[in-house]
Amino acid sequence: MRLRVYYNEFLAGSLEERKSQQMTTYLFQYEESYLNYRNARPVSVHLPLRKEAYSSNVLFPFFDNLLSEGWLLDLQLNSLKIDRNDRFALISRCGLECVGAVSLRGDDE
Asked: pLDDT tens digits for 90-105?
């Protein structure tokens, strides 16, 4: 599954989840057109601008921190029947309305 990542309404990159039998890998990669944009800014200080994709075995903390917490998280998990540990499914369903410069959109939007 893949999400498009926008910074101030400019397509900045993509966030992807790849599952295999042994593990899950998360990839974040900036769009080349965004990297060439004169006013490009990193989406996070921990994801500085670069051509190479970032790879992690856990959802990048910046994106994980866009999710709800507490009672609202519990409500979302229960109503959507999402496992608490499936952070990408949760951000795909509930993380699309973000506060601030960064927003996420599914490929079908």
From this structure: 888 876 667 778 888 8
3-state SS, one letter per residue, for 95-109:
CCCCCCCEEEEECCC
Residue 71 structure tokens: 């009672």
Distance between CA 80 and CA 90 in Å, rounded? 9
pTM of the model: 0.87
Q: Which residues contact 99 (CB under 8 A, 6 or more apart)?
A: none
Q: What secondary structure, in 3-state letters, does the chain show?
A: CEEEEEECCEEEEEEEEEECCCCEEEEEEECHHHHCCCCCCCCCCCCCCCCCCEEECCCCHHHHCCCCCHHHHHHHHHHHCCCCCCHHHHHHHHCCCCCCCEEEEECCC
Distance of CA 83 to the CA centre of its chain: 17
Q: Which of 13, 2, 7, 81 is nearest to 53 (CA)?
A: 13
